Each structure stands twice: as C-alpha cells, then as structure tokens.
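Exercise: predict the fold of this chain.
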Amino acid sequence: MTAPAQNTNAISPALRPVVELEKILQDLLVEHHKLARHLDVQQDAMQRLAIKEMDYARVQQELCRTRVLGLEQRRKSQVKQIARINQLEGEPKIPQLATMYPQRASQLLQLQADLRSVMRDVESKSFIATKLATAVLGHLNTAMRILSGAVGGGGMYTKRGTPRLASRIGLMEAVA
C-alpha cells in the first residue's frame, strides 16, 4: 500500500468525509494555481501579440475552469454528505465544520485561507485580461468602422487625406 492509502485507513470513520473534503479543497487549490499561471502566460502573450500562445493559454484556462467546476460539484456533494451525517440543515461553512471537527480545524481553515488568496489573484488577473482585451477590440472596431466608411465612400478623399462620406448614396454613386 502507498503512504496516502495507509494514512486514510488510519483515520476514524467519522473523520473520513472531512478528510475527503480536505482533499477536494487541495485539488481546488492546485487547479486555481494552474489557472493563475495560465492567466500570466496569456497576459504575457497579449503584450507580445503572440496569437498562438494566447489561444493555447485560453484553451488551458477553459480546461482548468472545467476541472474547477467538477471539483466544486464534488465539494458541494461532500459538504451535503457531512451535513446529512451530522443532521444539519443547509450547507455548513468551513468555519462551522472547523468547530464541529476540531481535530481538522487548522487544516480546513488553512485551506480556506489559501483558496481565498489564490481566487483573489485569479480574479484580479482575469479583470486585467478582460480590460486589455476590451481595449484592443475597441480599437479594432474603430479601425474597421473607419475602413468600411472609406470603402463605402466610393474612394473620394479630401485634400487632407480623410475620406469624404456622402450623406446619401445615389444610384450614380452606387454604380460608379
């Protein structure tokens, strides 16, 4: 047997659901760290306009988010199981679980603090990436509107080089 399997067998049956919850929280922590790294890679690629790297980072982020959603479902299920075992109504929060299981309180509270910290990090990095992407798309949209306006104007420009736009395109301009 491996060391973690022996460790799980040494734990009392009453604590097993909480230990399983700790494992899920650790997995969530790992996935959030991965997500933060992929966001860093994406931001670096955005600064260098490395399209392939941006796309790869985006795909990896989506995979991480999918795994996080799966782990969240497992976490909720485990918390409901703990609530059912202890005959509680609703979903108990981690501080409540820590008071119910004082043997595991320090681990639970530490995992909660670590997870909150990395989630704040991911949130701030996502916010920055969103703002940057919005700005770039705004500039591209403006450039496309100017270009389409120039094309729609029949190729007529003023002496200064700005496109002259007709207020209304008549039949003769449309054919020409």
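Check your answer against the key: The CA atoms of residues 49 and 137 lie 13 Å apart.
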